[in-house]
C-alpha cells in the first residue's frame, strides 16, 4: 500500500513477477469482488503466456451476492476457473484444492506420460495492493502447515508452503500494479482502499460513492442513514451530516467527517454488501 507506482517501479515489479512466474505451474489471481474489473491487472494475461490462472474473487463477504454470481459466470464464460472466497475465513482450502486439481490435471497427465512422478502443483498468489494476498496465503498455510524450505535452483530466500499434499504455495505473493486507465477506475480503486487515500480527495471519493449508492443501493443507504435518499446529492449529504451530528463549532456541517464516515462504513461492510462494477458495461456508476 505504500508503493508509488511510478513507471520505474512498475518495471521492477514486472521483472520480479516474471522471475516468480518461472517457478510455478499456475497462479491464483486475486480480484476484489467489489471491483473485479478495476482490480485486475491489464498486463497479467500477457505475462502469464500459456500459464494457467484461477480467478479468485476475494472479499465476497463485502460484495453484492447477486453480482458475485454474475461475475462468476462472466469469467467462466471466458473459459476460466473461478472461485469465490472470503480469505479471512477458514474452510477455503478445499475449494482452492479442488480448483487447482482441476486446472493442474492436464499438466500432471503430461508429466505422467513422460514417465515423471506426479508432484504437487506449484502455485502463487498474485494481485494488486490490499486485495488480500497475504491473508489468503496465511489462510492456506494454516497453523500446522510446514514450510518446505528453499528448493535447489530456486531464488534464494523463496519459501514454499505445503498445502495438503497436492499444492506447494510460494510464500511471497506476486504484486501487480493497479490500473491507471481513467479517472473512474482510479476512484473505485481508492474507494475500496486499493490505492492510498492521501493521493485522492476524500470528499470527491465519498460523494462519488454516495451518488452511486443513491442510484444502485438506495435501500442500504436508507437503512443506514435514513432521510430521503431521492433528494439531490448535496441535500442528502447535509441530511447525513445532521443525522450523524457531523457539525463544526459554528454549526456548519463537517463535510470532511461525513466523507470519512461514508468511506469507512463502505469499506468495512457496515453499509451492506455493495459491488461497484458489473459485467458487460463493467461499471455500476
Ligand atoms: N472482509 C474481508 N476482508 C478481507 C478479505 N481478505 C482480506 N481482507 C482484509 O483486507 C486487508 C488487506 O489484506 P492483505 O492480505 O494485507 O492484502 P495484500 O494484498 O497482502 O496487501 P498488500 O500487502 O498491500 O499488497 C486486510 O485488512 C484484510 O483483513 C476478505 O475476503 N474479506
UniProtKB/TrEMBL annotation:
Subcellular localization is given as: Cytoplasm
G domain boundaries: 122-183
UniProt keywords, alphabetically: Cytoplasm, GTP-binding, Nucleotide-binding
Against Pfam families, the record matches this protein to: MMR_HSR1
Gene3D superfamilies annotated for this entry?
1.10.1580.10, P-loop containing nucleotide triphosphate hydrolases
Is Nucleotide-binding included in the keywords of this UniProt record?
Answer: yes
> Where this protein primarily resides, as one coarse class?
cytoplasm
Which InterPro entries does the annotation name?
GTP-bd, GTP-bd_ortho_bundle_sf, GTP-bd_ribosome_bgen, GTPase_MTG1, P-loop_NTPase
Q: Does the keyword Cell inner membrane apply?
A: no
Q: Which CDD domains match?
A: YlqF
The role this protein plays is:
Required for a late step of 50S ribosomal subunit assembly. Has GTPase activity.
Family designation: Belongs to the TRAFAC class YlqF/YawG GTPase family. MTG1 subfamily.
Name under which the protein is recorded: Ribosome biogenesis GTPase A
Q: Which organism is it from?
A: Anoxynatronum sibiricum
Q: What is the lineage of its organism?
A: Bacteria, Bacillati, Bacillota, Clostridia, Eubacteriales
Per UniProt, what is the name of the gene that codes for the protein in this document?
ylqF
Amino acid at each position: 500500500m505504500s508503493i508509488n507506482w511510478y513507471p520505474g517501479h512498475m518495471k521492477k515489479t514486472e521483472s520480479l513477477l516474471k522471475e516468480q512466474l518461472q517457478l510455478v505451474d499456475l497462479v491464483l489471481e486475486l480480484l476484489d469482488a467489489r471491483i473485479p474489473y478495476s482490480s485486475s491487472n491489464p498486463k497479467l494475461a500477457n505475462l502469464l503466456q500459456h500459464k494457467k490462472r484461477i480467478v479468485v474473487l476475494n472479499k465476497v463477504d463485502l460484495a453484492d451476492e447477486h453480482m458475485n454470481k454474475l461475475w462468476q459466470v462472466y469469467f467462466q464464460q471466458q473459459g476460466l476457473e473461478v472461485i469465490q472466497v472470503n480469505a479471512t475465513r477458514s474452510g477455503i482450502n478445499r475449494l482452492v484444492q479442488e480448483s487447482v486439481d482441476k486446472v493442474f490435471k492436464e499438466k500432471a497427465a503430461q508429466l505422467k506420460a513422460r514417465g515423471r512422478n506426479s508432484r504437487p502443483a506449484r502455485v502463487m498468489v498474485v494481485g494488486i495492493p490490499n486485495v488480500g494476498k497475504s491473508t489468503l496465503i496465511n489462510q492456506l498455510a494454516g497453523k500446522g502447515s510446514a514450510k518446505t524450505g528453499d528448493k535447489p535452483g530456486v531464488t534464494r530466500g523463496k519459501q514454499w508452503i505445503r498445502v495438503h499434499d497436492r499444492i506447494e504455495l510460494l510464500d511471497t505473493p506476486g504484486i501487480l500494479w493497479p490500473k491507471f486507465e481513467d479517472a473512474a477506475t482510479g476512484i473505485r480503486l481508492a474507494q475500496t482502499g486499493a490505492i492510498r487515500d492521501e493521493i485522492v480527495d476524500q470528499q470527491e471519493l465519498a460523494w462519488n460513492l454516495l451518488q452511486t449508492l443513491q442510484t444502485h443501493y438506495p435501500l442500504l443507504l436508507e437503512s443506514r442513514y435514513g432521510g430521503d435518499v431521492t433528494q439531490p446529492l448535496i441535500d442528502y449529504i447535509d441530511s447525513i451530516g445532521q443525522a450523524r451530528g457531523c457539525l463544526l463549532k459554528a454549526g456548519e456541517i463537517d463535510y470532511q467527517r461525513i466523507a470519512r464516515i461514508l468511506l469507512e462504513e463502505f469499506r468495512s461492510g457496515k453499509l451492506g454488501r455493495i459491488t461497484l462494477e458489473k459485467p458487460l458495461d463493467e461499471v455500476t456508476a
